[in-house]
Fold:
Amino acid sequence: LGEAPTRAPQAMAALIIDKLSEPIEVGPKRLHVGASVGLARLDAGLANVEDLMVNADLALYDAKRSGRGRAVVYASSLGAASRRMNTVEQALREGLHQGQFELHFQPKVDARTLQALGVEALMRWEHPTLGSISPGEFIPAAERCGLIHELGVLALQQASEAARGLPSLNVAVNVSPLQLMDPGFVDSVERILRRAGVAPQLLHLEVTESLMLEDAQAALRRLHALRELGVQVALDDFGTGFSSLAYLRAFPFHTLKIDRSFVRSLTEHADARAIVNTIVQMAGVLGMRTVAEGVESERELAVVRAIRCDEVQGYLVARPMPLRKLRDWLAGRPVTGPVDDVDSRIMPWRTTHLSAPPTTMFGGDL
Ligand code: C2E
Ligand code: MG
Ligand code: MG
Structure:
């Protein structure tokens, strides 16, 4: 590191990360090692060196969590965030055993006819004192403390039970990459489907690209085994993270779910439209269906239809809702017919409200 000791701590950290990210040649192989750095300042508020190390650890943890290869300086907000993470992790186990978790379901509809084709199962957690905790918070917590397997089994069981009562609709369940790392995962899916008496074809599993970053070969083997079982596999959140066309070649996904950040930019940016248009066409050539996620406005729906996306999911059609509400929602839907007049029949608010539909039309995480 040369003259490094005289450098400022941040510059020193950047230098360490930089040097350690250079590939190392070991015989014929090139190995890549990375580093994350946590920095903490020894100031008057600290009682001893152990506290200093705790703070540096919190900063290091934050550096790893926010993408690795970074240096983070400790700030008191990190302490609060870490306390909240501990609280949530501890509440998870008890919550699982006390039945505080319940799946909600969000319809996926045909983009042209708006006929319901399936639902996505989304886990909800209502804690007696902490209130409702979002999946964005508790799924990573469950992944950190190893409870994601138990939570995943619960989701598959509740979704399979629901699928039995929702004839001709497919039910999509989100799967964490960690579940696919488990050698017993495929057997457990098969067992749950058999016990519930549900045809594998009705189950869709949604996986994200991050699954390919860990042990890709093992994950791919399991995805193939699930395919052979008859289960459908969807690539979720396409267009975020490290989206790469290589993923589409690595596995024959049945469905490509285009992330809502892409959908959001469709109405504003011609380049986004061109990209999504190409993705939809390419998916068609590869025999995959496309779902536009997070469609919130009629303008977005119009663009999604124009680029011939197959299915739509989003607040415009319905929010995620408990099973009994979903049944009411499905029962209240008219039978679909020709496409031209579809909006006034399936979205009755269109005749009276030309802009946004009245909020009472929506289920909404009830
Ligand atoms: P996801 O799989 O991409 O699910 C779609 C998310 O978008 C859901 O958020 C849904 O409520 C939200 N959404 C749907 N339509 C709209 C819209 O029009 N506008 C906006 N702004 N949002 C919309 P949710 O339920 O908070 O779930 C977040 C993520 O948590 C999910 O993203 C999924 O990755 C994960 N997740 C949820 N349930 C489970 C589960 O049972 N297991 C696993 N492993 N992950 C889950
Ligand atoms: Mg999903
Ligand atoms: Mg998604």
